[in-house]
Design a protein that fits this description.
Length: 532
């Protein structure tokens, strides 16, 4: 295997939600030579661009890393599939398209933890900068940015009923969960444009690739970062049967995501010395927080059989399915434009809570598991997740070989406070389903089922019926305590020339879906690098 040397100013590792943003912004200055390396392929698979295509691209090794967790004790030893995009656009190319920013208090809390410049007022301009909001500009939203944000192109009566039922159970209507307040019920917005997915590869990277100072290499697996006197100087990557060394005269920016960024750092000699020595990696610098602080949103799915027609009826019928395809081809509307959910509810699991701590994703369809065929009866899904879980997991390498997948232990439901919210979340779901607008339509609670009644039984239901909603974050957390990995400028503590800019830097998970916040992190990282 030959080694080829190359020289750049900036090297960005990973062309995902954050990496496409960082690379595209850095090369806006024509004097910067930027190299962007992506382990996955080009985004040529047509299912990437059709919104509902995540059913085809998830769990597909051509586009997904196909990670799997360790057995999770809090889930009765179940192992969960953890899809992550391995393609241009990263997880923004196979996610559920939902555009949600979280709560202002999440970012104020990051600042309170010692991260200057990350309070809500400081980060809002980056959300606005990236955005091209279909509804127009206002205090919270921007237009003209690379990230298209639009309203859903599919409405179904059962979703309307769900919204009415939520209102009847005391939850206010809210047309914009990314506006003045998140609390309430309303339709999601999505990262899509005219019926097509709008990944960061499409919005940010594609226009930037016209610039001669940006070089993109796909199918390039970065295996190691090399250091000289605790200064990151180069990276090694595998491309085909060749190993390459690329040197960065300015900085290396790690945007490989919440699983691969800590893995790459550990394989390169940063992390907990006990772990590194156990797998034979020479220690470059002790940073015990790398891989720790893993957080994710765990959703408990309730499925209700209904008298109303749902998408199950359309998708299980050959003729209707054909019509769905024709509708999409002719109008770019209908079920093929389906984001991962239609209706969002942000509310409180109990009156004592000061701000929404649970989120619902309501879908006008149901399936045994996400990605499987829909049930052969009319039903909808009402999933509830805790927004700010206390349980913390870990990601640790099992080998010094960067191609061997790390061990992922999310430790869901290991904190009793999370168990309490899980129980209360199911109760809120049942309260909504028994409100006047829904109760006459619902014929049965199919999952978990009426046999689960006591608190102990509801917790058992959560352990048996929950799934990730694919939001792992926090494994290279920003801060200045002993377990933090990067400072508030995203520079790796104790190391020069190296930043991390992706979902892994979140000190605490945001109260909502994580793609838009990761794009914001990419925007702010690029701005800090360019002005630094
Ligand atoms: C199935 C699914 C559904 C989701 N649904 C939603 C949703 O509806 N709304 C929402 O807001 N969020 C959603 N998310 C979460 C959101 O997409 C992620 O939080 C976000 O994309 C994370 O961005 P990132 O930049 O940190 O990582 P990623 O976007 O995953 O990017 C990391 C990139 O680095 C590359 N890479 C990794 N290691 C290497 C290496 N060694 N060498 C070279 N390249 C490497 C990867 O291939 C990838 O392209 C979903 C995620 C998934 C997987």
């Amino acid at each position: 295997m030959k080694t080829v040397d190359e020289q750049h100013d900036f090297i960005v590792v990973g062309a995902g939600s954050a990496g496409c943003v960082v690379a595209s912004r850095l090369c806006e200055n024509p004097s910067h030579r930027v190299l962007l390396l992506e382990a996955g392929t080009r985004d040529w698979n047509p299912w990437i661009h059709i919104p509902v295509g995540y059913f085809k691209t998830m769990h597909n090794p051509a586009t997904d890393w196909c990670y799997m967790t360790e057995p999770v004790p809090g889930l009765g030893g179940r192992q969960l599939q953890w899809p992550r995009g391995k393609v241009l656009g990263g997880s923004s190319s196979l996610n559920g398209l939902l555009y949600v920013r979280g709560q202002a208090e999440d970012y104020d809390r990051w600042a309170e933890l010692g991260n200057d410049g990350w309070g809500y007022d400081a980060i809002l301009p980056y959300f606005r900068k990236s955005e091209d909001q279909e509804r127009g500009e206002d205090r919270f939203h921007g237009t003209g940015g690379p990230q298209k944000v639009s309203d859903l192109r599919l409405r179904r009566p059962i979703a309307e009923r769900f919204i009415q039922a939520a209102v009847e159970s005391g939850i206010p209507l809210n047309n914009d969960c990314n506006g003045a307040t998140q609390e309430g019920v309303g339709y999601f917005q999505q990262s899509a444009y005219k019926g097509f997915r709008w990944s960061t590869a499409k919005g940010f990277l594609r226009p930037a690739l016209k610039r001669p100072n940006l070089k993109l290499v796909t199918k390039a697996h970065v295996c190691r970062i090399n250091f000289r006197d605790r200064q990151a100087v180069s990276i090694e990557y595998r491309h085909g049967d060749r190993m390459h060394t690329a040197r960065a005269s300015a900085e290396i920016v790690l945007c490989a995501g919440a699983i691969n960024s800590p893995q790459l750092l550990q394989c390169s000699g940063l992390g907990n010395p006990v772990l590194l020595e156990s797998v034979g990696v020479p220690v470059v610098h002790e940073l015990p927080g790398i891989g720790r602080n893993l957080q994710d949103h765990l959703q408990i799915r309730l499925v209700f059989k209904t008298r109303d027609r749902t998408l199950n009826d359309e998708l299980n019928h050959v003729l209707k399915r054909t019509m769905v395809g024709i509708q999409y081809l002719l109008t770019r509307t209908g079920p093929l434009t389906l984001a991962a959910s239609q209706v969002a509810v942000f509310t409180r699991s109990s009156p004592e809570v000061s701000r929404p701590d649970i989120q619902f994703h309501m879908q006008p369809l149901s399936a045994g598991r996400p990605g499987e065929n829909t049930h052969r009866f009319s039903a909808f899904t009402s999933s509830v997740c805790q927004l700010r879980p206390w349980s913390r997991g870990e990601i640790n390498i099992r080998s010094k070989d960067p191609l061997i997948y790390p061990e992922i232990q999310p430790n869901y439901l290991s904190d009793p406070r999370d168990c309490e919210v899980a129980i209360n979340g199911i109760k809120v779901a049942r309260r909504i389903s028994s409100a006047p607008s829904l109760r006459d339509s619902i014929t049965d609670e199919f999952v978990p089922g009426g046999q689960y009644q006591s608190d102990a039984e509801l917790l058992q239901a959560a352990r048996e019926h929950s799934q990730t909603i694919y939001h792992p974050v926090g494994t290279c957390k920003m801060g200045n305590d002993p377990l933090s990995v990067v400072d508030s400028e995203l520079k790796v503590h104790g190391i020069g020339g190296l930043r991390v800019a992706d979902a892994s830097i979140m000190p605490e998970i945001v109260s909502g879906n994580t793609n838009a916040p990761t794009i914001m992190i990419g925007e702010k990282a690029a701005d800090m690098i360019l002005s630094g």
